[in-house]
Amino acid sequence: MQANHNTPSYPLSPAQQEIWIAEQLNPGTGVYNTAGYADIRGPVDVARFGAALRQTMAEADCLRAVFHDHGEGPRQTPNDTMAWPFPLIDVSGEPDPQAAAEAWMQADLAQPPDFAHGPLFRMALFRAAPDRFFWYLCGHHLVADAFGLTLLMHRLAEIYSALMLQQAPPPAWFGKLEDMIAADRDYHTSDALEHDRTYWISRLAGCPEAVSLSTGTAAAAAAPPGKFHRQWAELPAATGDALRAIARDNGAGVPPLLIALVAAYLYRMTGQEDLVLGLPVTGRPGRELRRIPGMLANVLPLRFEMTPNLGFGALFQQTAREVRQALRHQRYRGETMLRDLQQAGAVARLYAHNVNVMAFDSEVWFAGHAGRTCNLSNGPVDDLSLTIYDDGEGKGLRIAFDAPAALYTEDELSGHRERFIRLANTLVADLGAPIAAVDLMAAEERQRLLTDWNVAEPSPRRTTLASLFEQQAGRAPDAVALVASEERLTYAALNERANRLAHHLIGLGVGPEDIVAVCLERSADLVVSLLAILKTGAAYLPLDPHYPAARLGFMLADARPAATVTTAGLASQAPGDGTRVHLDDPALVDALRRQPAHDPSDAERIRPLDPEHPAYVIYTSGSTGKPKGVVVPHQNVVRLLDSTEAWFGFGPGDVWTLFHSYAFDFSVWECWGALLRGGRLVVVPYEVSRSPAEFLRLLVHEGVTVLNQTPSAFQQLMQADRDDPTLGQRLQLRFVIFGGEALDVRRLQDWYTRHADTAPQLVNMYGITETTVHVSYLPVTREIAHGQAQHQIGHRIPDLRTYVLDAALRPVPVGATGELYVAGAGLARGYLGRPALTAQRFVADPFGASGSRMYRTGDLARWRADGGLDFLGRADEQVKVRGFRIELGEIALVLARHPAVAQAEVVVREDQPGDKRLVAYVVPAAGSSVDPQVVRAQAAAELPEHMVPAAVVVLDTLPLTANGKLDRGALPAPVFTSRSDRAPGSALEEAVCGLFAELLNVEAVGPDDSFFELGGDSLLAMRAINRLRTVFTVELSIRDLFSSPSVAALTRRIEALRLTENRPAPVPSSPADLRREADTVRS
Fold first, then answer.
1. Could you tell me which CATH number the domain at 183-209+220-239+249-356+380-450 has?
2. What would the CATH number be for the domain defined by 799-873?
3. Which of 121, 235, 985, 1019 has the maximal Cβ count within 10 Å?
């Protein structure tokens, strides 16, 4: 039924406009319905109740509105003739009348509204018994919020009670829709609006990205509209009264105390010291507005400063101040705050979680019979949200935990509910206790994390790499073990050559606990040398000749090897005074022919070889810039291969590549995974490893079945596969195993467009040199690659233990962020010659056997509900630009979606001290050319301003380190140059060109150049606006520069403002004059 044409219509309020837009984007759902019911404990006169309902709805014109989209935008019109269906539904015969009624309500709640005809407000009455009824109300958020439903409920109860007493109802007191729209119009034309805007922009400056507690979503992603889970918890009356007493003693209300509890919980779960929490408010600061049952509600961001030593009492005081300030500015819309901040280069959303405090008596009286209100839905649930009901003195606190089903399981929500209640009870008992000291976990969860998920299965055998290889050579002496260019060695030939070199080294006095350096190019001699050193019992120290000479020199001086195996041509790369073994020395070649060909025995070695003797020393970068040598025993590698056997089943039929630098511990897995399982190892020449197309041909030609790659290297191989899909279909790979750096699984979506899920099986293996190559295992699927949890690292290797701990080395719950520690059989001895650093990183394991150790990785992680792990980045180097945490992988993914882009990487550069900028590097797709500005414009259309790269640099290939990781140091600095092909057309254009050139530090700027395409960002934009305002005396805003970023467009905007303000703006005669005027103003 449509509204009468004579009835006045009204524009939508800002709050309604946001909901209207959301409904247009996602039509046909009931997600914006809000609903509840009153549980009336007494008889109800249905006729009089219906009469009270009709009178209440007649008084509430905002609830009778219907909506139409006109040419000038949507309008709302109260419908005076609307019929109000009011069914009476008898559920008294049901086994559980309340459950039956609630099931009906939930089904109705999900029904989408009819905006054009209405009604947008629905009701029903359920008879559960002669003296028990449920009155159900459901209103769309366009016409009512939760506070409006409460007003409606109280007014109807008031009218019904009067009718039952056969009295005239009290006069109508609802405010009108016209009043609501007028009040909003007055606010938006008042000084209060600008005052509120100023407050919020200042309060939210540098606001952090929202962090969700969901393990199924990216940090700043909201859930799609849809079903949500709800669970209830209750704090007993004694706890409720204790909270009220604390509030009174501190001169503050109960709501800030409850909000502080939620903030404390989020801090413990996320570790965020700069924390933002959403607070729904009525949006009705005055008495007149509090009489209007329409849609005025708002959600305000509350910002907290958290520290490890912060006590709950101090947090309560901080919260009380924050809430008081926020409520003074509650009419400024949260959606507008977000837009303001995004225009200044800020966050994608303000908060992930919110808390709603209902501090009023939940009982409504119907003719002397109590009706307790029960909420069903407050509208969309984007993430975990808490609604706390405080029914007053002598009563407990009811808490509703809501979470979208797309992000949380029922079990995950239950875990949050139980932990929150535990935290609340503890903090209320001791206000001074540091929040960080509270134990969140129940005994059952602790048991699950420390024991059930961490039962280490020790390796069944203790032996050495040399012994295992010798056994394999004995089983299949004629099988091909090694391919290096044109050279092919059988297991017998490889064993014999290694034996002869081993006997020679033993003759030089080399044995267990010694170190022998190896500086060779990728070749058969390299593998022979590594094997020979292991046979002597010594540890090999890889010196990649492609490493910088200074680094190689440091490693030699630090390790002091007993000997160095190299060639005459590479000898200068490995300077030192120790014994030199030049494999290309004719005298050595002759001497090796005379050495025994049999396997060295313990009797022939300097001393017997034990599985705990070091097998290799690999240097890794230190946080101080000083490399450190990690000492790894034979047994560590043996158990690595044994413990992962069930996952891979490597055997004689497998062909592996030695793709990575042998100075990178991924090579340990490549080399010995092949040779100790009877496979064939193909040594990839360095030049081929840097040519994805040639490497793809090698993989096909050699029939490689096991490929190990860093994600950066695989991105390049994916490009080659994309460019030559016919060749890619001839691959015989069984496994592609990722390691060495974080894998963003979303980058694999392109691979799955051409390849099946398990042909090959992609596997992500998180690992660290100090824990022997690998720690965890995750078989990647197409579903995972297209999911939202992009940094899963899977489950631990069976003989390891993994802990996620807080700063006090206590386990954190599932879903909480902590630092990852690794214990068990894979731990290295420690750092060569660095006992203090070893003690700092390899610490006592408080959860293991006496004397056991665990390694502090420095990586942030969190448990998933299935016992897997998420990798969340480094604890000590989160990427931030201008105070905003940046997800570089997200930016790269957006850039890579451009059809002309094959690969993309994004880094933070600081080419000028203090000036951090995002710079993107892209590689064109085959047959394509890339226009950097077009690619940047695509990013600007999809990302917040602070995530848009200041520059896009086009490269033929992305540089990789010797280890196959992205070589950030080799990425060139961007060069910003003018693209304009004309000179300034006026003195004003020339002046603006000069100002842009000065601020952006570029040689020249033309009229058609964009401020942002020349490297400008929001901070520089604010400086530019201030200078332009000063010099031209016009009221430019930051929005003007964003909407008119070119010199020509901005000049036209300045001229338009000049005419509007009816006063000429001075134009400096030259850029030098402009600078002088600005300097004068600054001085």
1. 3.30.559.30
2. 2.30.38.10
3. 121
> HEC profile for 894-951?
HHHCCCCEEEEEEEEEEEECCEEEEEEEEEECCCCCCCHHHHHHHHHHHCCHHHCCCE
The two tokens of residue 939 are: 């990013």
CA distance linking residue 765 with residue 772, whole number of Å: 12
Determine the Cα–Cα distance for residues 88 and 158; give it in Å rounded to an integer. Answer: 21
pLDDT digits (tens, 9 = 90+) for 246-257: 998 888 889 999
How far apart (Å, rounded) are the C-alpha atoms in residues 585 and 589?
Answer: 6
| 973-1015 per-position pLDDT tens digit | 887 777 788 888 888 899 999 988 888 888 889 998 888 778 7
Q: What is the H or E stretch that residue 1067 is in?
A: none
Cα(566)–Cα(90) distance, rounded to whole angstroms?
92
Residue with tokens 């969860």: 445
Position 931, amino acid: D
Q: Domain 459-640: give its CATH architecture.
A: 3-Layer(aba) Sandwich (3.40)
Place of tokens 């069944």: 460
Per-residue buried b or exposed e for 963-985, using 16+ beta carbons within 10 Å of the residue's own CB: bbbbeeeebeebebebebeeebe
Residues 1043-1067 as b or e (16 or more Cβ within 10 Å = b): ebbbbbbbbebbeebbeeeeeeeeb
Burial 124-153 (b: 16+ CB within 10 A, else e): bbbbbeeebbbbbbbbbbbbbbbbbbbbbb
573 secondary structure, DSSP code: G
Query: What is the model's pLDDT at position 460?
Result: 75
Superfamily (CATH) of domain 10-180: Chloramphenicol acetyltransferase-like domain (3.30.559.10)
Please list the alpha-helical segments (H only) found in 210-286.
237-249, 254-270
Neighbours of 315 (CB within 10 A): 25
> Residues with Cβ < 8 Å from 119, sequence gap 6 or more?
64, 79, 82, 83, 84
What's the confidence (pLDDT) of residue 671?
Answer: 98
| 285-294, 382-391, 906-915, 1028-1037, range with the lowest pLDDT | 906-915
DSSP per position, 488-502: EEEHHHHHHHHHHHH
Percent of the chain scoring above 70 in pLDDT = 92
Write down the pLDDT at residue 1028: 84
Q: Tell me which CATH homologous superfamily contains domain 987-1060.
A: ACP-like (1.10.1200.10)
Helices (H) and strands (E) counted in the chain, each on its own, are 34, 41
Q: Are strands 369-377 and 680-683 parallel, antiparallel or unpaired?
A: unpaired
